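Moderator note: this is an archived Q&A kept for reference. The question asked for a predicted structure of one protein chain; the sequence and the answer are reproduced below.
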Amino acid sequence: MYGKSKLIVGLVLLAVGAGLVPTGFIINQYFVDQVYEGVPEALLKIKDDAIESLEGQLPGLATPDVLNGLKEEAIAQLPLIINGSGAARAINQTIDGVAFFIGIDAAKDQFFNSPTFQADYGTPQGVSDYYDTLLAFDLNITNLGYTTNAQDSLLYGNGSLPGLITDLELGTGVLGYMELYLNASLGDMLLNSTMQFYYNATWSQLEALAGYINNYLWEVVVKASYSGWGFTIEEFAEMIFYAQWANGSQFVDPIDLSLFKSGVPPGTTGLEAGIPIPTNLTMSTCMNLWDDSNPLSFVNDSGIMAWLNTSYQTMIEIAFSISTPQYLLVLGWLGNFINNLTPVLILAETGYTIPTLALFALYEQWANGTIFGESILPEGFLSRRDPPIYGPPYFEVGLTEGATGLTLTQTMALWNEASEYSLVTVSGINKWYSAKPFNSTAYVALKLYNGVLTDVQMEQILDWLPKFRDDIVNKLAKDDKDLPMEPYDLGMAILIGLGVSGGALAAVGIIFLILSRRF
């Protein structure tokens, strides 16, 4: 109400003020001064709007790279899990199967020490059995002599040392044992002694068990599960990745992403689109959905935008031959991943939060016209506002003048709200207006206090600044103050219209009009 009353008073004063004292020139200069000193405010307003927009967009824009990286790391780690879990399950199933007939204690002893284990029970070979067959005539005489204590310690763990069958799903026990053995065999004598003590076994027995796991369980038993289909273990790992992602069919619990990504908090899950409801997507469909060369894939930079725009739903369903329920399951998963997991994974990868990266992105766009090295906004930030402002010139010096190569330190100095040499303080902007290449006091100080700018960088900024001020800030002032025309034009109109017959009351009326826009 206060603002409206001032608007009415301003109109009245403007109406009755004509014909008194010439004031058009003063008012015109007032508008010019307002635009000049409004540059810092305009830059900071654009910065705030741009960062808010980037914080909302960066997780989505970054998700294709995040997913591709996660897939690569998962597929690189899955062969270990395949071998570890495959060996653990083979040992456990073999002992359990024999225990059904002779009891668990006898089954464990036979598994470790019998030279005829496979022949007697129709199972994979046991440890002593494997080494006996390596003899020239398979004499059925090899008994490596693992004690009962050794058998239990090796199977179930002892102290801080892992047991072979304590983790059947991921095989961390087997993998842990093999890692300990490798480190000890490379010369860690303390670890060598620790393993012998806690496993209640001699080094020869520990060495024999490691060879059995590596040369028989991994190379014969586990390998048969994928080589029979014509796959390498790496290809099989990719199949498992897709099966787990689409349906959660390989592991009972969702995969803990900290297994694949250092820096991710333990217990971070959400990789699977098929948990808790399986998507039932085919293997070929999964491969297409994860193909980063497919323009509609969610791991493609343009494809992610299509997935986030529901108007593309029918196109996506047809392109990937998926049903609407399948589309909705994947879309729901994707939204959750973008909002909750991408920021966590980005922080683990870069050490930066989304707000910090949004600030860095703004600085890079302003300085070079790129965001993280990509021309994501070739028409500039202001082309996305309502109403849009298109260049040239642009808000970005990097688009108006070309890439500046400004460092992050230099850019942060130029945008420092506490610096009397920056672009975003009134004292700083007035120094920039007065800087004359190449040896004026202001010019030298601005170079020094903004990260030692080069003459080329100074020239780019000095050339960009008046264009930004006189063109873009003018447009922004008209829109933000809801003026009938841009300030320069409005000031000139007043100068011409009131130059002869304008008066003090008219000047006061104009000021009230301007002030009314601020409330």
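Archived answer notes: Residues 1-32, 482-519 have pLDDT under 50 and may be disordered.
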